[in-house]
Each structure stands twice: as structure tokens, then as C-alpha cells.
Protein: GNAT family N-acetyltransferase
Amino acid sequence: MDKNEVREIFDRVMRENARPDGPGALVERVGGVVRQSGSADHWNGVVWSDLNQDTADAAIAEQVRHFGLMGREFEWKLYAHDLPVDLPERLKAAGFVPEPTEALMVAEVREQLAHAVELPEGVRLVPVTDAAGVDLVARAHTLAFGREMGGSKNRLVAQLAETPDQVVVVVAMAGDEPVSGARMELHPGTGFAGLWGGGTAPGWRGRGIYRALVAHRAAIAAERGYRYLQVDASDQSRPILERLGFSVLSTTTPYVRGAGV
Structure:
């Protein structure tokens, strides 16, 4: 994989030409910024920017005004290769707070098909297609991360109901207990499928469930003709994904600003 080439493709098709990530969201380009706006359950924020020393502050102020008038907390999803180089300092000066940095990782789907993993005894993967299944995913999320899914739970239910061809959700069950949940967001025409979730309950970690969830989704992506799998990887997930052949293309840091102008 030519990492620079793939990163350029990712920036163009997934960021600059981003599409709404769920029903009811709006993506628009305003000057040098591409942003998504929606309800409180949607992800609200900036996905791409093309700024320089002369345009950055005005663009930041415009996003603060826009989302402030909506009463929305929002995120500026900043990548390490975004310009200008002092954009992080400009965002912090405008009241944004950085959250933990993650690695932008990509692998070719066909290379993941060789990484099938046996699940621990008594664990099975169950497709999620409705609100009851999302409840199981939400329980697994709380066990894995120690926090609730919040508005993303409602958004996931809406995605499954209204755009089921663009999302795949699966939960790992140990008997009647959900121990891990994950989803894959499919972006038609881009070649990219995004892997999200995959956190595992503490008592089940280190037993191959995360790797099995990656392999399961990779097989579905291959069936549907996607070329790349993309992950925003935490420090915990990154070593596992590197062993599976994922490459780091950049890093991404969420800069978050509370509601209000």
C-alpha cells in the first residue's frame, strides 16, 4: 500500500466529499470547511478544511457561530496533516478542548480475509437489525467503556431502519450476555468501509473477540466490493490492528466545543 496515495484518496472521498453519516444529517461546504449538522443525536462538526494563516480564524469563528445558533456541542475533527500547522493552537484559543488522539489506520480488505479467528468457547456473533439488538450493543458498550452510548444509540437505530444497506452491526454474545459490539459503516462509491466499536467487556479481553469482529466485518466488506477498511484506533486497539496488517496514515484528534455562541 502506498500510504500517501491512500491518505490522499481518503481525504478526498471521505472528508472533502463527505456524505451524511445518517438519516436527517446535512453535510455542506462553507468556504474552506466541510461540516455536518443535525439533531442532538447526530454527530455535529467539521470533517475537512482547506485553510491557511489568513483564513483559519474566520473559518473557526463561522463554525462557532453556526453551531452556537443551533445550540449544539460540536467537534472539529483535526488530522495531523491538516493546515495551517498552528490550527490546534487556534482552535484552543477559540474555546475548543482536545480529546485523546487516535490513529487513522487503513488496511486492504482482501488482506484481512486471511485473518479468520476462532471465537472463545460459548461465544457467538449475532447480526443486529433492530432496536432490540441495538440495546444489546449498548449494554456491551457500557461494559467495555464504562459509559453509555448516548445519542449514538438512537442514531444507530435510525440507520438500521432507514439505510440498512449502509451499516452492519454485530454483537458478540456469551450465553445471554453481550460482551462486545461493533459496527461497520459502508460508504458507497468511495471504496472505504469504516470500522467502529469493538470494545470488549473486561473479563473477555485478550481472547480474540476483537480480532474476530474485524474479520467478520472484513468478509462482509469483501462481499460488497469494498477495497479498504478504515479505523480511528485508540492506543488499545492500535497494536492489535498493526498485527493484522493495518497501516497508520495519520492521527486524528477531536477538538470539542460546547453549545452556545
Summary: The helical segments are 3-16, 56-70, 87-93, 109-112, 131-145, 151-162, 209-223, 238-243. The chain has two domains: 3-102+252-257, 108-250.
